[in-house]
Amino acid sequence: MASPLSNVTGLDAVFRYLDKDGDGKISAAELTLCMRTIGEELSLEDAEAFVALVDGDGDGLLGFEEFVKVVEVEGEEERERGLRAAFEMYESEGEGCITPRSLKRTLSRLGTSRCIHECTAMICRFDLDGDGVLSFEEFRRMMMMV
Fold first, then answer.
1. What percent of the chain has pLDDT over 90?
2. How many CA atoms lie within 13 A of 58 on its CB side?
3. Residue 71 contacts residue 107 (beta carbons within 8 Å)
4. Which residues pair with 26 in a beta bridge?
5. Which position among 33, 59, 96, 146 has the lowest Cβ density within 10 Å, counted as fewest Cβ atoms?
6. Cα(65)–Cα(8) distance, rounded to whole angstroms?
7. Residue 2 has pLDDT above 50, yes or no
8. How far is CA 2 from the centre of its chain?
9. Which residues are CB-contacts of 95 (< 8 A; sequence separation ≥ 6)?
């Protein structure tokens, strides 16, 4: 019977592929072998170190739930990089924040014309500390709401 977690994530097929011996766990050796099949080199020592790092129950193997946590962390890191890149696109003045002027300029480059007052109002909706600009944290919260 499939784990409820597998139904949510859809990662069960990937996990089964990596679990070459079908014991419900991924060993460092299985991880090394699978990486090799996709053209990546991963030494057994590096695989063992990785497994030890994310092995929540200390058995030296990755169970399905541990595997899902690893994939979710990777997804979070990728999402964070994407948010950072988007923030930097809007934060074109090098001030470390999105100002009404930088928002207006970026929207204009993207083909959307807004006056400075509209840009100020847009920023105010998500400006949690009231300083008139969006910090990265405020931008992140805004993007998570969208």
1. 28
2. 0
3. no
4. 62
5. 146
6. 12
7. no
8. 26
9. 102, 133
Residue 79 structure tokens = 């999402």
What are residue 26's phi and psi, to 5 degrees? -110, 120
Q: pTM of the predicted model, to two decimals?
A: 0.52
Tokens representing residue 73 in the block: 């962390």
Tell me, letter by letter, the H, E, C secondary structure of the chain: CCCHHHHHHCCHHHHHHHCCCCCCCECHHHHHHHHHHCCCCCCHHHHHHHHHHHCCCCCCCECHHHHHHHHHHHHHHHHHHHHHHHHHHHCCCCCCCECHHHHHHHHHHCCCCCCHHHHHHHHHHHCCCCCCCECHHHHHHHHHHC
